[in-house]
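G., the chain you wanted modeled:
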Amino acid sequence: MEIIDKALEFEQRKHTFKTTSERIESSREVKHLILSLNTIYKEDKDPEIMDLMKRLTVIKQKIEKRLKGRP
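Predicted structure as tokens:
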């Protein structure tokens, strides 16, 4: 399960992005991880995978909030 390992590694990584392009890349990466985990979850129905997806979604929302800026 290398997708799960990549997702756990992304979760542990520092999330201080200096440039906008770094934020965009990380947002796309976490989106890909979440969708990949979702396909695994559909087959296994493992609650640990769902918890991991939820934690990654929170990280993704923070990144996207920072990308959009203030209104």
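The longest helix spans residues 20-44.

Shout if anything looks off.
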